[in-house]
Write the structure tokens for this entry.
Amino acid sequence: MKDIIWRLQAALFSLFTLCVASLPYSQSLRIGRNTGRFLYNVLHSRREIAIDSINQSLPFMQKHPAWTGEFNSAEEIARATFMNLGVSIVEVCRLYHGKGDMLIDSIDVSGLEHFRQARLKEKGLILVSGHCGNWELVSLSFQRLFGENVSAVARHQNNPYLHAVVEKMRMSYGNKIIYNKSALRPILGVIKQNGVIGMLTDQAVFENNGALVEFLGRTAWANRAPAIIAHKTGVPLVPLFSHRSGTRHTITIHPEYVLCGDRSEAGINRDIQALTRYLEDFVCAHPADWYWLHRRWKRAGEPI
């Protein structure tokens, strides 16, 4: 029975993406916004997670220098987050079916010189990012924007048929996928070949792979892998984030993060805290462009 359900899910996903990609762009955008509204209304548990997390983070964000005051309540931010997610879904549908030229042309890149400077070291590169803006668009447009392929660290889909569909679509843009289980060896292999790794490091991890950091005024577990790998290999760590700017997208690339030089556990934790600050600054500046729908602070004092 599970196999039948999985096949049906994959078929419906493929049909939905094809239908959306076949529509004129303006019409697909309306569908994206409506999809966001629909998800906000029907995904009750995810909506409550988002609103609760935003409510607890809002006092910190409102005092942050990057805060713009665009939103007045957690509900406003959560609603805008779902709207952005809905639009991102239809954008990815177009990309997956080869109709993403207009989307890629709508991307502005700030800080390209930081990317190029890090590449001059010829030690590979890890782009440290999060679930910000349309993160799939960033990944799928990478070859066109930067003239290089990226190996993205991603989670393996539970549904094997859906996994095969998504993997084929992602790799059609020249990307390679490294799945997060047993990812260390292939990551080191890409770095050894002077390749580019993309890591989304903004979700909660387990204690054995994490460092406790302060994020938006609360304690959270953060992935230690980028700092550990950088200490081991000398690979540059470059923070990169994406947000919506009206009908366009902006990718911001920061200068390479320089490790603190201390390879002890305390030093690693200092580096991860420093990298977390980049994400924190981003979320305070663009709160509706971050994926609030997961429990970021779980296992660090917040109920699962």
In short: The chain has one domain: 2-289. The two ends are 30 Å apart (CA to CA).
